[in-house]
Amino acid sequence: MSGPSGVGPGGGGPGGHNEGSGFDARAQSARSSALRQQRAELKAELASLQRDFVDTFDRAKDSDDPALHGLRIDWFLRSLPGVGPTKSARILQDLGINPRATIGGLRINQRTAFRRELVGLTERIQPRRLVGRLVVIAGPTAVGKKTVISQLCEMRPDLEMSVSATTRPPRPGEVDGVDYYFVSSEQFDALIEHDELMEWAVVHGTHRYGTPRTPVLRQKRAGKTVLLEIDIQGARQVRERGEEALFIFIVPPSFDALAERLESRGTEDPDERQRRLATAVEELGARGEFDHVVVNDVVEDAARDIVDLLQATTPRGD
Ligand code: 5GP
Question: Are 103 and 57 in contact (CB under 8 A)?
Fold first, then answer.
């Protein structure tokens, strides 16, 4: 997670007490060789697809691990199966990136262009049957997302639900690690700080919710279809990150139906209901940002529509 041992800052710097002795040179050389070793391990993990290329690239920018942050872009690119020196040089030239640049040190426009290229390249090297994907399901408050999703999971037991982390306390019957990872505010801060969340948001102006990145990517790498039931702000972040996903928006059959549903579930007082309805109006305006809109009139029908959508949009025969 943090920097590798033995390669931290300090020691051998200007003004160090070993100045002038051969020790500095030896320490320097030991550090360089440790760094080389770590980079070689990193490359090997990338080349054997144990590590996700796009995720590694995303982490590099803010990483304090010199082996990662300072990895040369041409090295990184050439770890991709099928990318040799010639292809790597051509790609970097096309993107206007110096091959000696480091993956953590690219300018923003270079980063965006390189990431796009990388996503395309990695898709091509995924083993055919192991193409997992993300499905983001969002919708306005009280639209009945949870009910539709549990019906959907009954119809397609092969789907994996991502388990979010939240600072909200558990409700009766909710199980830690199953419904959510219930964490303290400090733990949530640490997840953000260590870049462990794919997206996160404050929902309904109260608690924070976020999608842990590692389990999602691991399941996706294993060829699974992973469902993220998240709010609209979170869905936007997933899209902005350039994450390949199918974005589904669930809507009520009418606004009145939504208001009725909110009232009949009786979990909010009238003020809170008004507030949520106002939010819902705003949220409904986001439908155009999604790939597909599913109407939740009858739960089974809505779940069946999603099953059909998954089938129709499956990337390569799973
Ligand atoms: P609840 O507290 O009722 O379980 O969930 C409240 C809202 O939080 C739901 O609308 C749900 O979509 C959203 N939510 C749950 N997990 C996540 C998450 O990981 N990220 C984001 N952005 N929203 C989430």
Answer: yes
- Cβ of 56 below 6 Å from ligand 1: no
**What is the pLDDT at residue 318?**
41
Query: What are the b/e assignments for 95-132, b being 16+ CB within 10 Å?
Result: eebebebbbbebeeebbebbbebbeebbeeebeeeebb
> Ligand 1, closest atom to CA 168?
2
Q: Can you tell me the distance from the alpha carbon of 297 to that of 114, in angstroms, rounded to the nearest whole number?
A: 43
User: Ligand 1 atom 17: the closest Cα is on which residue?
Assistant: 230
Pocket test for ligand 1, best of 137, 200, 209 (most atoms within 8 A of CB): 209
Q: Is 197 helix (H, G, I), strand (E, B) or coil?
A: strand
DSSP H/E element including 92: helix 85-95
Structure tokens at 119: 């996503």
Q: Is the pLDDT of residue 23 over 70?
A: no
Cα-flanking dihedrals φ and ψ of residue 143, to 5°?
-80, -10
DSSP state of 71: -
DSSP letter (8 states) at residue 3? P
Which atom of ligand 1 lies nearest, measured to the CA of 207? 2
Which tops the pLDDT comparison, 286 or 10? 286
Q: Is the CB of 140 under 6 A from ligand 1?
A: no
Residue range 182-228, pLDDT digits in tens: 999 999 999 999 889 999 999 988 899 999 999 998 898 888 999 99
Centre of ligand 1 to C-alpha 108, Å, is 30
Q: Is 167 in the pocket of ligand 1 (CB under 6 A)?
A: no
Total-model pTM: 0.66
Is 274 strand, coil or helix? helix
Classified as helix, coil or strand, 81 is coil
Per the CB < 8 A criterion, the answer to whether 43 and 79 are in contact is yes
Reported as a single tens digit per residue, the pLDDT across 145-158 is 999 999 999 999 99
